[in-house]
Amino acid sequence: MRGTVPLLFVLAMLLIAGPADAQQSTNDIGYDLFNTMGKGSVLPSVQSSVAPRIVPLESVVNPDEYIVGPSDGFAVTILTSPPLVTNVTVTPEGTLVVPSVGEIRLSDMTLTKAREAVLDQIHKRFISTRATVTLSVPRSVNVTVLGQILVPGTYTLSVTDRVSGAIDAANQVMRSQKVEDELALQGARSGQSHRLILVRHKDGREQRVDLARYAAERISTLNPYLREGDVIVVPSMNVARDVIGVYGAVHLPGRLEYVAEDSLHTMLALAYGFTDNARLDSVELYRYDRSGKETEHMVLNLTDGRTDLPLQPGDRLIVRQKVDLRGDPRVWVNGEVNYPGGYPISQEGTKLSLVIAMAGGFTSRAALSRSMVVRQGASLTQIESERLGSFTGGVPHDDSLYYGVETASRLQGERMSADFVALFEHQDTTQDVFLKDGDVITIPPVDRTVYVFGQVVLPGHVTFESGKDWEYYIARAGGLTDRARKGDIRIVKASTKQWLDPNDTRLEEGDYIWVPMVVEHNFGYYVNIIGQTASIIGVAVSLAILAVQLKK
To answer: Which CATH class is domain 140-234?
Structure first.
């Protein structure tokens, strides 16, 4: 009860002070109460109304690495009754003034050691009381970044940033800057060493930073937290010499920066290790001399995980892959089957009849005569390559153009030669083709019409009648117009898209009948034809006269 009267007195004084005094900052309250404590007052519970500054972090701060310094903010809670809660800041002299406890020197201590020092002093003042000490507001520090960097200079960053954060800040290009600066940034980054970065601390100590290994192995000491006065020197890298190539079944294949004393394990770690299908029993190492000539070739067995050896600049590591043919090959069935969709097939290929059976067979509306299998089309690059290749064969221009059109059409989707009627109605197994991954089977519905278009009176669909010839369908379409070119009528087959003479085929449902138009030419066209004809006749007469004279 002895501490109750002073406590009530202090609370009453705070209420009397009114709202203006209540807006006092947490640090001011802390120092005032500390001064009052010297007069024999008991510290009341004070909860700060000022939210700590939020600093984005890459992970939880490691208290064994974090070095405490001026302006670090701490939340100190002493679990008395009532609890004593205050936010205090490390002074420029490197001390922490905790109300009811006193001044504690923390500068250059790790966060772990600093917390122990504060708790030790609290427990001396409050013998049987629990307490907590938490870093609440990490301080800002000034660091200098020099060397192979886009914008060398001094930067203000959070002490929770690592060296990589300072380098990123010095590589930044403001949005207002020009495209030339973006190109300069790319050039600066391409020539930066990521593994030989040097940090000079204000106490004279030096530390080497290896950002590549830090990213791969997350070893904190390879990318330490920033401290006041740090000078970061980023050297340049010789991309033509200081590299080792790691290729094949690793997670990050490519050219990796080499530093002295790198070993096989180091470089494989920088490549983020082996993939699941890597062959560890036959990793190949190729070594070259300064002239680029191969001097050594070794096949290494790394299955035990212990084999290691030093590497040299220019070495090449090749990690072979295990053959895995499982994949997910499948084909698609569209149209008139009972269960359309995708169906798995084997790597060696699955026959058409089996896939149709998997799809539940045909519906009653399936038009087998127009069904087809289309193989996946080629890329635009392949189409262009074949088109250009068609002009190198020494064939006439018209033929090469025709070949180019046919090639482009073919590569958009190659139709398989499969007769569905022969296979499924007449059991001709020679039509049972093997399917490949990506093939599309299309079963169109029965189309009981023949489409007549061109120079007919009523173009459109005419109901199909088995056995009827083309003249029947043209008559049903209203007959020919006055401008129809009857001698050039063509049947376009629905299944193959071939253009055939009406006398060379039998009409089937879904076919098209095309009636072209008589082309009318102007007077000049006929004059030109007559002139050419006269020229030919004149040449023929001249040759005849010459032949007669030669016989005399």
So the answer is: alpha beta
